[in-house]
Specification:
This is DUF1569 domain-containing protein. By secondary structure, the chain is mainly α. The chain has helices spanning about 5-20, 35-45, 55-65, 95-110, 130-145.
């Protein structure tokens, strides 16, 4: 299982982000490519401890039991629900969002597991740094696959 804390895995993600274009179209879902980049950037903020969305009641009950989805080899399901506070619905500027996300990935990866947040994920609850690292790679991979890169 790939982990964003592995330098080569982070480089793979960054290279795929560079292959996106403003005209990239989703293979599923409704977000534009710029909205997807902003969404992924907002998710990075949670993992970095810069944003603290509240826990939802559903996550409180079943999140801990399904968190293995973060670390198994199965791809994330298409059109799954998202954390409401990181659902991007306004228009965004592609180049700006791409650079913001890339910088956050670089910072997160270079800070290492020890700088990962200890604040609970809004759905899954408390995660180890390994679960965050694998989960972030899997989330980014999911959305990059959504846009064909």
């Amino acid at each position: 299982m790939k982990n964003i804390f592995n330098h080569m895995h982070a480089v793979e993600i960054l290279n795929r982000i560079d292959r996106l274009a403003p005209s990239s179209q989703p293979q599923w879902g409704t977000m534009s490519v710029a909205q997807m980049l902003a969404h992924c950037s907002s998710f990075q903020d949670i993992a970095m401890g810069n944003s603290f969305p509240p826990r939802g009641w559903l996550g409180l009950f079943i999140g801990p039991f399904v968190k293995s989805v973060l670390t198994n080899d199965k791809p994330l399901a298409r059109n799954m629900s998202t954390i409401p506070t990181i659902m991007i619905v306004d228009e965004r500027e592609f180049e700006q969002e791409r650079e913001i996300l890339k910088q956050k990935i670089i910072t997160f990866q270079s800070n290492g597991p020890e700088k990962c947040t200890t604040h609970p994920h809004p759905f899954f609850g408390r995660l180890t740094s390994e679960q965050w690292g694998k989960g972030i790679f899997k989330h980014l991979d999911h959305h990059l696959n959504q846009f064909g890169v």
